[in-house]
Write a structure and sequence with these properties.
Order of helices and strands of chain B: HHHEHHHE
Helix content of chain A: 55-70%
Number of helices of chain A: 6
Largest sheet of chain B: 2 strands, antiparallel
Oligomer: heterodimer
Order of helices and strands of chain A: EHHHHHEH
Shape of chain A: globular
Distance between the termini of chain A: 31 Å
Structural class of chain B: mainly alpha
Strand content of chain B: 5-15%
Strand order of the largest sheet of chain A: 1-2
Largest sheet of chain A: 2 strands, antiparallel
Number of strands of chain B: 2
């Protein structure tokens, strides 16, 4: 099976930025979320829609809301915490994992918005 | 008298075909550039109002990234602060203003799906975003690709 090597340090920084943003965003006045341009323009959600809500909900221990917004948010937090804790030096994943994951996320979001 | 030695860190190949700027550096550079453009927007908003300033903001955004990333150094102010630059993927040199403009326009596509095109570099073999791929560019550390003069 073909695999892709991921830059662990980059993933760790991205994970830390994600957790930091999810902790800080709800504290800001008006709690600004990240606008999805595709949904704003067309009404159609993208695979990553709901991720901000999902990750914020996990940090506030509202797991039900997190799964309902986008289950991938739960996985993203889990991976981010593991990368920060375990200090892995290398990470290889099957090359099909990303397209399959994105397809699954998109199907979920289209269903959530009543389009699929 | 001996010449001062410049120490270039050894590059250990581990995926991409050459040294690449890290996600963290690119993210912080973009934040700096975003803040600078936002300051310009704030000033314009106070002077000419919301509608006109929004139109000018798009023009300022395009002009800023096209000029600096298309210049011989390939560095915006944020990229200069973080020691990274945009270069041609194949030849390794400057990309020029026309491709700089194309790369800036391609940023719209990178941002279209919740900024998925920006995150793409996290798992891409050459650490390219979508706008890198469309413009055939890579972002590299200046430690390996030094800049002669800024903006050049």
């Amino acid at each position: 099976m073909r695999t892709t090597e991921l830059e662990v340090r980059d993933l760790r920084v991205a994970g830390a930025a994600m957790l930091g943003a999810a902790a800080v965003l709800p504290l800001l006045p008006g709690a600004p979320g990240l606008v999805c341009p595709l949904r704003a323009l067309t009404g159609v959600p993208c695979p990553l829609c709901g991720m901000t809500t999902s990750v914020e909900s996990i940090l506030q221990l509202r797991l039900g809301e997190a799964f309902a917004a986008n289950p991938a948010g739960v996985a993203a937090v889990l991976v981010a915490v593991l990368l920060l804790v375990l200090r892995a030096s290398a990470l290889r994943v099957p090359s099909v994992a990303l397209p399959l994951g994105l397809a699954g996320m998109w199907a979920f979001e289209l269903h959530r918005f009543g389009l699929f | 008298m001996s010449e001062p030695q410049t120490t270039i860190p050894a590059y250990v190949p581990s995926g991409p075909s050459g040294p690449r700027a890290s996600f963290g550096r690119r993210l912080v550079a973009l934040l700096i550039d975003g803040i600078l453009v936002a300051i310009v927007y704030g000033i314009l908003y106070a002077i000419i109002g919301e509608t006109a300033s929004s139109l000018v903001l798009v023009a300022v955004w395009f002009a800023y990234f096209t000029f600096f990333e298309g210049s011989p150094s390939g560095q915006t102010i944020g990229k200069r602060a973080l020691g990274i630059r945009v270069i041609d993927f194949r030849a390794g040199g400057p990309i020029g203003f026309a491709r700089g403009l194309g790369r800036t326009a391609a940023r719209i596509l990178s941002g279209l799906l919740c900024y998925l095109g920006y995150f793409w570099m996290l798992w891409d073999g050459e650490r390219q975003t979508w706008h890198d791929k469309l413009a055939t560019t890579v972002v590299v550390p200046v430690a390996y690709y030094p800049v002669d003069k800024w903006p050049g």
